[in-house]
Amino acid sequence: MPSTSPTLTAERILEATEEVLRRHGPAKATVVDVARALGVSHGSVYRHFRTKAALREAVTKRWLDRTTGLLAEIAGASGRDAETRLREWLAALFAAKRRKAFDDPELFATYSVLTTETAETVVSEHIADLTGQLTAIVRDGVESGVFTAADPAVAAVAVFRATDRFHDPHYAREWERPGVQDDFDALVDLLLRGLRTR
Amino acid sequence: MPSTSPTLTAERILEATEEVLRRHGPAKATVVDVARALGVSHGSVYRHFRTKAALREAVTKRWLDRTTGLLAEIAGASGRDAETRLREWLAALFAAKRRKAFDDPELFATYSVLTTETAETVVSEHIADLTGQLTAIVRDGVESGVFTAADPAVAAVAVFRATDRFHDPHYAREWERPGVQDDFDALVDLLLRGLRTR
């Protein structure tokens, strides 16, 4: 009779799910595949994630959160110059997305499908996390007199939207083109000029 | 025996092609359908467009050029204030895309497929036309001392990229959301602050 392994954690299930997704693709991966990969019953998996949709949401969130975690350090370093941090943060976001797209294209394609399939809240929470980090940087800049922005949150969203081309997976194919780094730099320069106090 | 009607112009063929695409969708529309709609032989159509691909390219270009034509007037009014023109131009582009997406969603979906299918040159020429117009406005602004930009063409591309979310069909679903106009206005304000001479 299959029983829940004492070490079966949500994190282990999510790791296995990512592997199964990588191997079978998002269309074919099932909870039974995940359970088999872990050597447990599918009931054990359902004890942690009540539905297949919940499991997919959780694994997508985990993938998205990896980027958020990377950037949190830059956003949190409130002692440092806000302009430098804003540049670094945008460059780090672009670099993280490029790495995801090119180092593991199958997994990137899988998650690109999952982000359009899963509950919109997962993606919008991710975007709220990121724009929240940006808001913190803009607010620090306003407080130190480097930036001018009537509402740092509005300015942060504008900066995030303006750089869509350099983080939205829809544009992944553009990230390899010659000149993409120049385009990115020109855009960041323009946005920083827009934020800077005159 | 079918013969070429003396009034069979490329424009008439393209009009009929658009109707056929609207009716049958991009997957099913054929050159024979277009010829039938015009009451001519498919040979007559091929005399104007040598391949089905060439016909699809031409009809896509025509659809894209409608937007370019609308905006050319704003871009060309070099006597008027560059900042006002830049705002108007970006608003007109966003409005034109929204109209295309919502007034005739089937045709918009059809052309969204066609722009990803047809030779990339058609789309990149369209984008070059649009950024060329933007460059003219930025250059006028630099010449009249309103804007500062080391290279107006580079600044124009940055502005165009920054506003992708408000003209790239990929984001069409976002254009109906509440707050989209505020997001657009905040972004344009930020970009204009970035361009303005201090």
UniProtKB/TrEMBL annotation, chains A, B:
Q: Which domain of life is it from?
A: Bacteria
Locate the DNA-binding region by residue range: 30-49
Question: Which ranges carry the HTH tetR-type domain?
Answer: 7-67
Give the Pfam families listed for this entry: TetR_C_27, TetR_N
Signal peptide location: none
- Asked if the keyword Transcription belongs to this entry, the reply reads yes
* Keyword field: DNA-binding, Transcription, Transcription regulation
Q: Which PANTHER family does the UniProt record give?
A: HTH-TYPE TRANSCRIPTIONAL REGULATOR RUTR, TRANSCRIPTIONAL REGULATORY PROTEIN
Q: Under which name does UniProt file this protein?
A: TetR family transcriptional regulator
The species is: Streptomyces nigra
